[in-house]
Write a structure and sequence with these properties.
Strand content: 15-25%
Bound molecules: NADPH dihydro-nicotinamide-adenine-dinucleotide phosphate
Order of helices and strands: EHEHEHEHEHEHHHE
Number of domains: 1
Organism: Pinibacter aurantiacus
GO molecular function: oxidoreductase activity, acting on the CH-OH group of donors, NAD or NADP as acceptor
Number of helices: 8
CATH architecture: 3-Layer(aba) Sandwich
Protein name: SDR family oxidoreductase
Number of strands: 7
InterPro entries: Sc_DH/Rdtase_CS, SDR_fam
Radius of gyration: 17 Å
Distance between the termini: 46 Å
CATH superfamily: NAD(P)-binding Rossmann-like Domain
Strand order of the largest sheet: 3-2-1-4-5-6-7
Shape: globular
Family: Belongs to the short-chain dehydrogenases/reductases (SDR) family.
């Protein structure tokens, strides 16, 4: 049976790389984001196994309808990847409450809300499925100037474990990938104007180079596959050794 996947933020960077791996494995993949043009261009490159849904996930009220539309159209949802995320690099004392809340809303609350709706749909499948959350090195060790992002990614890892214990008995595996420093627009913004930070990143990455979005795509495809059928509740660093680097 054809598997149906949702990847939030699937129009660019890591999300797009995961979508590439999924469609290559004949998984029908729905990519979600705010920028219609970006999604449209991604879909053109991904081919007929890809479908787009334009949605600002911070508008939580539209999430049940989004999931309902997908479920009614396809009759099942097998995979959810909570990948959409935003970052904010600022001194601790400069971060406003509104900025902090916006990061938490995008990176955590929207992922919770979407997961809740998708789980309701998944539970109607004969084989319920799996969820992958996307964390970051920001929750593996202390990184300066990303307070809200760090809080959001620590929350995602905690949620992964809480979801895994509650949902695995019902057949839904929940795992998390913690990407290291991966070459995308997001990391370029964080590193390119900050040579000291870039040097620090490279010096503690034993493999000595930034990761490729496709590295995360491969890990995600593995976690969705039957080869990972006994894996749930893990946070898998895909980081060239950055999280254990000296
Ligand atoms: P990108 O900025 O390329 O991707 C982020 C995606 O999230 C975009 O496609 C964007 O789509 C989508 N998005 C953001 N806000 C919303 C929203 N409100 N509603 C719907 N979609 C939204 O960055 P990356 O690919 O680098 O990041 C992907 C994930 O990987 C993030 O969770 C990030 O924290 C994580 N990560 C990245 C690392 C890296 O080194 N690059 C390292 C560790 C973690 P649109 O603009 O269309 O809304």
């Amino acid at each position: 049976m054809k598997k149906i996947a949702i990847i939030t933020g699937g129009g660019s960077g890591i999300g797009l790389a995961m979508a590439e791996k999924f469609v290559t494995a004949s998984i029908h993949t729905i990519i979600v984001g705010r920028d219609k043009q970006k999604l449209f261009e991604a879909a053109q490159s991904l081919g007929s196994y890809c479908e787009i849904m334009v949605c600002d996930l911070t508008d939580l009220s539209v999430i049940p309808e989004l999931v309902d539309d997908i479920f009614r159209k396809h009759g099942r949802i097998d995979i959810l990847v909570n990948n959409a995320g935003i970052n904010l690099k600022k001194e601790f004392t400069e971060v406003s409450d509104a900025e902090f809340q916006q990061i938490l809303l995008t990176n955590v609350t929207a992922a919770f809300s979407l997961s809740r709706e998708v789980v309701k749909a998944m539970l109607t499948n004969n084989k319920p499925g799996c969820i992958i959350n996307i964390s970051s090195m920001a929750s593996q060790y202390g990184l300066p100037k990303v307070i809200a992002y760090t809080a959001s990614k620590a929350a995602i890892e905690g949620m992964t474990r809480a979801m895994a214990v509650e949902l695995s008995p019902q057949g839904i595996r929940v795992n998390c990938i913690a990407p290291g420093f991966i070459a995308t627009n997001m990391s370029a913004k964080a590193l390119n104007n900050d040579p000291e930070r870039k040097q620090k990143v490279m010096s503690r990455t034993p493999m000595g180079y930034l990761g490729n979005p496709a590295d995360i795509g491969d890990a995600a495809l593995f976690l969705t596959s039957d080869a990972a059928q006994y894996i749930t509740g893990v946070v898998l660093p895909v980081d060239g050794g950055n999280s254990i680097g000296f």
